[in-house]
Write a structure and sequence with these properties.
- The protein has about 210 residues and is mainly β.
- It has one domain.
- About 10% of the residues lie in helices and about 50% in strands.
- The protein contains 2 helices and 16 strands.
- Strands 1, 2, 3, 4, 5, 6, 7, 8, 9, 10, 13, 14, 15 and 16 form a 14-stranded mixed beta sheet that branches.
- Strand 13 and strand 14 form a beta hairpin.
- It is globular, with a radius of gyration of 16 Å.
């Protein structure tokens, strides 16, 4: 097994209500799961390959809860990454070179039956975890924006967190509201409007979560 680790930030959006029942071992809000997730590596290695500064994302859909499988997944890697970096990111996101079920990527991959051809595209990604804000733009593929949840009466920013001491993705996530729309070149259709948004620091390796 190739040893690897990534340390950085992620921004995600799914079709569930704020809070996302999956985070609490409950069934998804609408019965199915449709999601986007993007991340930036601030520091990372895959064997001898340096991953610092690399970005990647995926769009995915499951007909029911993720744990029931039969998902469809499409990975996106930044066209500014080297061929070695792209190969490393695709292996990490598809659960290769990872102890089974120890990261969210390995879990999602294990629950997926249809892997669409990965896309190599320019990725414009901004993440502010503490501010509960994010933006993803991949031309003709996917756009997503995230912001704080607003008080429905006053409009004031609302702050909520999810703390998972034994989670396989993050230890602490800031929760917000996010909207995602896929484009003509996307293999998975997403139209998410003001649904569950997630902003978190991630520190993962071939053996699982490190922080």
């Amino acid at each position: 097994m190739i040893e690897w680790y990534v340390k950085g930030e992620e921004f995600g959006n799914c079709n569930c209500d704020y809070g996302c029942p999956c985070q609490f071992n409950a069934l998804p809000t609408h019965g199915d799961c449709r999601a986007m997730s993007a991340f930036r590596v601030d520091e990372g290695r895959f064997g001898d390959v340096v991953l610092d500064g690399a970005t990647a994302a995926f769009i995915a859909a499951w007909p029911g809860p993720v744990h029931e499988g039969n998902g469809t997944m499409q990975y996106i890697v930044d066209d500014g990454a080297s061929a070695e970096q792209r190969d490393a990111l695709l292996k990490i996101m598809s659960g290769q070179e990872t102890e089974p079920m120890t990261t969210m990527w390995s879990v999602f991959a294990a629950m997926t039956t249809t892997f669409l051809d990965p896309l190599v595209r320019p990725i414009d990604l901004e993440i502010d975890v503490d501010g509960r804000r994010g933006r993803l733009a991949v031309p003709n593929v996917v756009t997503s924006t995230g912001e704080p949840i607003r008080n429905p009466v006053t409009g004031a920013e609302h702050r909520a967190r999810i703390d998972l001491p034994n989670g396989f993705e993050y230890r602490l996530a800031e929760i917000g509201s996010a909207t995602t729309k896929t484009g003509a070149e996307a293999g998975v259709e997403l139209t998410l409007d003001s649904s569950y948004g997630q902003f978190a620091e991630i520190h993962l390796s071939h053996t699982g979560r490190m922080n």
